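Troubleshooting: if your tokenizer reports a length mismatch, compare your output against this known-good record of 428 residues.
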Amino acid sequence: MTKYTLTYFDVEALGEPIRMLLSYGNLEFTDNRIDYEKDWAKFKSEMPMGQVPILEADGKVMYQSLAISRYLARLVGLYGANPLEDYEIDNAVDNINDFRAKLAGAQYEANAVAKEEKFKLLKSETIPYFLEKLDAIAAENDGHFALKKFTWADVYFTGLSNYLSFMAQEDITANYPNLKKVIDNTVATPGIKEWVEKRPTPKFTAFQSKSSKIMSSYKVYYFNYRARAEAIRFLLSYGGIQFEDIRFEEDEWPKFKSTMPFGKVPVLEIDGERYSHTIAICSYLGEKFNLAGSNEIEKLQIQTAALFIYDLIGIAEDVTFTYKDSLGEENHQKELDKLLTETIPKYLTIFEETVAKNNGYFVNGKLTWADVYFASVSDYFQGLFDWVGIKRDGNVVDNYENLKNLRDKVFEVEGIKSWIAKRPETIA
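Known-good structure output:
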């Protein structure tokens, strides 16, 4: 009996159609998953062409995901009965793969400005074009992609579907019932059905269709302000994750406090589990949506920028209202004057220089969660001033050209822009 070992990252993506084909054929396999951050560097040099997935069959190493899938499709009887039928199936697969390549070109674009432009084109033209065409093909073939029957083209699309939705930043089946039918038919197929029920939870879960796996539930708990929670809302919106925005007034806080980790908010709840602290949550979401840097130094730089932003927020809050009563009116005014004329300008000047040096962003000229975090709190300072009756013309960030431009760019990012347009109006 042939022994199979599939080696790929701990995600669905290009490995999942192969896992599904092996499962459909009842071919036992070892599912060898590589942790990209920890282990890929040492594995890469051992891989043919320096890439995964690879499939080992009794010592024979196969690579290229489409070539592997075609081999398995023939082995398990999901190819055509003649060259013309093979063509019909291959044609569908190649169209799906073209769509994947278009999405990947935007998703993995390193330059933030270019990435934004590519996503605009994706959303306005590419995604609707491909999904309408693919949905029409599925409609013509009674919920399949070729020959009006179950073939490996259906398996290929279903295996990639969560990954395609992740890169598209939307559920690709939401408005396309025939594509959903393809997935429903595939995940109900013996062998594949059992695999889907037992497979590990993948990292790409943001847009999973209900037919393949239940979508995670997200809730954000905070006061009826933007303030410290807005970065979390921004990042969830950037990732296309629907979330319940649970807000409460200050007089309602006592009944919520005992249920929150450490008795503090903001809190992000994921599938019933609650997680606290703005920086920790943003760091997690940044990793999830590829906004956390491409190496350890970049991660350190992002964390550093975010923590200094966090420090400034804490100082501003303490001066404006936390210690207001204990300081007395005269001393409170002195501290406010110092905050306005020394502390805030000091921090913002450093931020301004950092962003200027890094081509318009906090780290290496590309969008990271530190940029999203800064933009989310950029109008919070004026909110704090309003609370204590300080009137200023314009936003304090408007005095810093690079920070203003950064804020404006983040506000125009797909997902974040939509959230800003619909979010509740609050004082800060």
